[in-house]
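Fill-in record for Elongation factor P.
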Amino acid sequence: MASTSDIRNGLCIKYNHDIFKIVEFLHVKPGKGPAFVRTKLKSVTTGKVIDNTFSAGHKIDEVRVETHKFQYLYNEGETFHFMNTEDYNQITLEKSTLDAPGLLKEGEVVTVLINTEDGMPLSVEMPQSVILEVTATEPGVKGNTATNATKPATVETGATVMVPLFINEGDKIKVETEKGTYKERIKE
């Protein structure tokens, strides 16, 4: 049994007869009243995100997990196929267990959290950022730059990312996977 002081991002817990992964948390100590922990939990079975508040010292039921590196192979509709990079076993996961399926390109190595009790995959952690090629975007219009002007661009995985006006088709860009936002242009 763990307590609220053990809460951290990525921790998997049993809550309301389901397994949740902690996406965000904040320890709050108000001037008046007891301390508490405000959390954002993502269900690993349904992908639904809920907000919850635990009082300080509350006991939480931690789920022991192992992390393994898997390479993304391909997808069939809502099913995504991965291969373990150590023993080459393949697994299939539902789209709901992925944090950012639109930014996943073939060959990308991700971290899969696996429940040690039953060996079931719980969730997929993407790398901090991915490098993708822009396949379609409107040309930037000169003089159309008030401040931080952006335009939509479609990347090789089919996802749409807002990019600065100077980005053109064929450019490679670094995208932050957590928020799905443009970071920088990659020079070759």
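KEY FINDING: Residues 65-125 form a domain with the OB fold (Dihydrolipoamide Acetyltransferase, E2P) fold (CATH 2.40.50.140).
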